[in-house]
Design goal:
By secondary structure, the protein is of the alpha+beta class. It has one domain: Gyrase A, domain 2. It is about 45% helix and about 20% strand. It is built from three helices and four strands. Strands 1-2-4-3 form a four-stranded antiparallel sheet.
Length: about 90
């Protein structure tokens, strides 16, 4: 899977709420009402990531989770990263 250009990434992120492109990664910092809500989100995302074989870097804190996607193999953002960001949005709206 080929790396996306900066223009392609920024264009894709327009339709995704609060995602940031920085340092060859896309990321989102998500707030939750409770700590366990954040953990439930992480568990839901982990199942999809395993199915899709594209895993995020996650930072879990008190009532917040930071989600970061990049292709470690290719050193940047691919279509698969964008698709996983869309999955994050789907989980959040579910």
């Amino acid at each position: 899977m080929a790396l996306l250009s900066n223009k392609q990434i920024n264009s894709a992120l327009i339709s995704l709420d609060d995602w940031i492109f920085s340092d060859n990664k896309i990321l989102k910092d998500i707030s939750f009402d409770t700590y366990l809500s954040g953990i439930e989100f992480v568990n839901s995302l982990a199942k999809i990531a395993e199915e899709k074989n594209h895993h995020p870097d996650l930072k879990v804190g008190w009532c917040r989770v930071e989600v970061v996607f990049t292709s470690h193999d290719q050193g940047g953002v691919t279509d698969q990263c964008i698709e996983m960001a869309k999955m994050v949005e789907f989980i959040l709206k579910s």
